[in-house]
Amino acid sequence: MTLLLLTVFAYMVGSIPFGLLLTRAAGLGDIRAIGSGNIGATNVLRTGNKPLAAATLLLDALKGTAVVLFVREYGHGGVFLAALAVFLGHLYPLWLGFKGGKGVATGLGVLLGVCWPVFVVCGLVWLAAAAALRYSSAAALSAFAVAPFAAWYFQSWKTALLALIIAGFVFFKHSANISRLLNGTEPRIGQKA
Known about the structure:
Elements: H1 2-14, H2 18-25, H3 41-45, H4 50-74, H5 79-91, H6 104-114, H7 116-133, H8 136-154, H9 157-173, H10 175-183
């Protein structure tokens, strides 16, 4: 019963749509009506409001980290399940008809809570790819492509499996981005809608 409650709690925290809430509070309307229609930081950046995009990125990441750390402290072994639940909550939030973000910030936040060296490796890969390519999607895909290997190296096969599952969902949610990258129509970082 405790494990079930922690999983539901993790999912509910993951479902908080910070990008949508912050843009509405700032008077920018519904973020789902511009750009990619996504609720994440990259689409918030397309409004031209960099502080709001940074806040979205931070809050989406922190909800993943906070849940993992909380469950590690009080959950008696339910970290793996809670980590997946908070991540899936962001991707498929109940409040938004199960249409959420693409999981990059929350996935990185989960990895920070589970094994911080994996987060560091992924963060460095993201920064390098973003600087070189200027595509947020390509940077995210590059970061999550190395995540399972980093998790295996720094911690265990179980952490690698978690990273692999998260990476699989990130790639799936970026399928349209991958198509646009291949045909040269993907918008660059900071490009307005």
